From TrEMBL:
InterPro entries: Alkaline_phosphatase_core_sf, Phosphoesterase. It comes from the Bacteria. This is Alkaline phosphatase family protein. Pfam families: Phosphoesterase. The keyword Signal applies. The lineage of its organism: Bacteria, Bacillati, Actinomycetota, Actinomycetes, Micrococcales.
Length: 381
């Protein structure tokens, strides 16, 4: 099945919140559908971060990644010693795809998302439910369902999705066609289901999609200056380097061994870049635990949604995975026991960029990164 490269097609640009900048100047809130005011985003504990980097590895529970004997010592020891480990951080669903969607939109899973969107199906909606949930089934959300990139673009902030092994920019299957990237092949280990930006029509239908959703190789040159580094850089390794496959189709070991080798190449490029050094934050986490039969636990009040009684297929969530945060605003070799999940990550990014909360990021009482994460004492007089 042929994938579609929208960098070569012209479509009407559909953006939400065209009056956001004017509203912001007046001190008013964004009225994006499904969003609520980010009341805490102006509080003093949110550092002046201007560049956020997010890296996801695949299908790794907390103990496997961060426990004694981890097969990723660079991640679990070297990098861990440089940041704060969130040891009660959870995935929000099984299988992989809805966890990525949660991180950029706050949308919960439905049955097709839980099966990793074997067919690149158009979402068919029947209504909405609080907080900000589109009711229905399918994988590719219409332009009426907002995501983080809509918010960033409306505020004149920049973003890019860096996808390893993606052959051409903005690459995805034809609508309502089978997804041929469900299994890696030699020379092509890109997985559309690990690229959440391909599931929003406001992105795939934009003539600028190919400028935003690019191959990982572009990251090196973009990191050369703060001016060329996006405000949000969302980075996905291929099916071998994210630890999904073990062994890999090209003979590499895969699993956490290949995760570690990949991180040794790319994390130094990020943390030594001008943007990160000036005002950056890097978050490294996993999409979900080892699988629904292993750990489908949840935190943060997550429960049944309008489209899935059990977001974790066999339980309420995606299991305990942990997350590591690196930044000048973070004290090295520390940890936080506060409960977080992917919706918390979305809300925390929205706090940083002074954006309203989308979807389940609006959940009452949901923890967002605070002084337990931004713990370097940066804001002390």
């Amino acid at each position: 099945m042929t994938l579609i490269d929208h960098s070569s097609r012209k479509h009407r640009l559909l953006l939400l919140g065209t009056a956001v900048a004017a509203l912001a100047l007046l001190g008013l809130s964004l009225t994006t559908p499904g969003a609520s005011d980010a009341a805490s985003s102006t509080t003093a504990y949110v550092p002046p971060i201007k560049h956020v980097f997010v890296i996801n590895i695949e299908n790794k529970g907390y103990d496997k990644t961060w426990g004694a004997g981890s097969a990723a010592p660079y991640l679990s020891q070297t990098l861990r010693s440089q940041g704060v480990l969130l040891n009660t951080y959870y995935g929000t669903a099984h299988n992989s795809q809805p966890n990525y969607i949660a991180q950029i939109s706050g949308q919960g899973p439905n049955d097709q998302m839980q099966s990793d969107c074997q067919v690149y199906s158009q979402f068919t909606g029947t209504g909405t439910a609080a907080p900000g949930q589109a009711i229905g089934s399918g994988c590719v959300f219409p332009t009426s369902v907002p995501n983080l990139t809509d918010q960033l673009s409306a505020q004149k902030l920049t973003w890019k999705s860096y996808m390893e092994d993606m052959a051409t920019p903005c690459l995805h299957p034809a609508l309502n066609s089978p997804d041929p990237t469900q299994k890696a092949t030699v020379g092509n280990q890109y997985a559309v289901r690990h690229n959440p930006f391909m599931y929003f029509a406001s992105i795939t239908g934009s003539p600028t999609c190919g400028q935003h959703v690019v191959n990982l190789d572009a990251l090196s040159s973009d990191l050369a200056s703060a001016g060329t580094t996006p405000n949000l850089s969302y980075i996905t390794p291929n099916l071998c380097h994210d630890g999904h496959d073990s062994p890999c189709v090209d003979g590499q070991p895969g699993g956490l061994t290949s995760v570690d080798a990949w991180l040794k190449i790319w994390v130094p490029k990020i943390v030594n870049s001008p943007a990160y050094q000036n005002d950056g934050m890097l978050v490294i986490t996993a999409d979900e635990s080892d699988g629904p039969q292993t750990d489908a636990t949840a935190c943060c009040g997550e429960g049944p949604g309008p489209n899935a009684a059990l977001p974790g297929i066999t339980g309420p969530g995606g299991g305990r995975i942990g997350a590591l945060v690196l930044s000048r605003y973070v004290k090295p070799n520390t940890w936080s026991t506060t409960s977080y999940n992917h919706y918390s990550l979305l809300a925390s990014i929205e706090d940083i960029f002074r954006l309203p909360y989308l979807g389940y990021a609006q959940t009452t009482g949901l923890n967002r990164f605070g002084l337990d994460v931004y713990n370097s004492g940066w804001n002390k007089p």
